[in-house]
Amino acid sequence: MTNYRWRIVGLLFVATTINYLDRQVISLLKPTLETVFNWTETDYSHIVMAFQGAYALSYVVFGRLIDKIGAKVGYALAVCLWTIAAALHAVATSTFSFGVYRALLGLGEGGNFPAAIKTVAEWFPRQERALATGIFNAGTNIGAVVAPVMVPWILGVYGWQVAFLITGLIGFIWVIFWWVGYEIPQRHKRLSSQELAYITSDADNTGDESVQMKWLDLLRFRQTWAFILGKLLTDPVWWFFLFWLPSYFASSFNLDLKKPSLPLIFVYTAATIGSVGGGYLSGYFLSRGWTINRSRKTAMLLYALCIVPIALTRYATNIWEVVGLLSLAVAAHQAWSANLFTLVSDMFPKQAVSSIVGLGGMAGSVGGLLFPIVVGSLLDTYKAAGSITIGYNYLFIICGSAYLLAWLCIHLFAPKIQPIVLKNTVLEITT
């Protein structure tokens, strides 16, 4: 039997790595850009919000579009758009133009996860989906690991404009490999009949695949709201880790962001391990005969509990104690995220997966849009008082409690993880 499905995951992994590399660059260049453009924390939060607002819109638009035109064309379109936007940062001349280019970047990057989750649903049986999702989702961390090594070096040698330009244009190379190497399993010439049979071995009994579903149809279901609330409550935490951790280490521990940052590398490497390991754990539970409901929810509860200790950073006495707590938190977040995304393909038919991911992703991005208001205001207040670290301590307490609340919401709205089927053009829940 061939194993071509894992090559497809490799392509998803690389795309996700590029996606996060492009968005991470600005956080590493923040101290330099603050000097050049006289940014306050509030100015920076507005730029983050421009990205988040466009990203939220992109999620839901690309989610719907990809369900209609397919992952091959939709993914390529999204990557081309965000690649152009990332490179355009190099010609920004003001805070306003940074906001415009960040918004354009968000419009493209929102297509990554709807396309990737739909691809996993098409290429993997249920038992392997969380692992496959965890593998490609690890690209979010690899991008964040590569950036602290790559960007400071480019900044020191060539300047901030070239840092945006070089990291931005990598996406075009990926598009070539994607266009040549991707097709749905039923049409792929490199796929053996044995692997195709394995991929479709637990095909969902979802009824008529020609049935078209509207967003209002999808919003009728409690399962949709379980995913939406899970993303709304926890995605803002990851955005905070992504956009403010470099600044946190710089302000609280005098970390020089013009040099490769070992603490940041440790933190985001831990997130990579959490993503893959988190995807494996629920699959392991399934292989032991556990139900999907028990497997996914047990794993996600464990991950939610692992994030709570981040509130103890206020008692840490040195940078490496903080690195340990943050590493555990980001690893648990990525493990949580891999399973949360997999819930969509567990509950919904394949022709709705991208749309559901789009709705949830939009909710998460709206949360990520609003949370920077709190972050910027809180940090500016304590920065003016000469104790910005206290502001970060309060933010870590908020982050530590978000996942338990999200888990409770998921359990309330989806007491049992079970599939939805289509009958006579009407969505009904299987019993």
Automatic annotation (TrEMBL):
Q: Which domain of life is it from?
A: Bacteria
Keywords associated with the record: Membrane, Transmembrane, Transmembrane helix
GO: which molecular function terms?
A: hexuronate transmembrane transporter activity
* GO CC annotation terms, alphabetical: membrane
Instruction: Please list every transmembrane segment annotated in the UniProt record, as residue ranges.
Output: 47-66, 73-92, 158-180, 224-245, 265-286, 298-316, 356-379, 391-414
Compartment annotation: Membrane
InterPro entries xref list: MFS, MFS_dom, MFS_Na/Anion_cotransporter, MFS_trans_sf
Give the membrane topology.
Multi-pass membrane protein
Spell out the Gene3D superfamilies in the cross-references: MFS general substrate transporter like domains
Cite the Major facilitator superfamily (MFS) profile domain residue spans from the record. 8-418
What's the protein here called? MFS transporter
Source organism (scientific name): Spirosoma validum
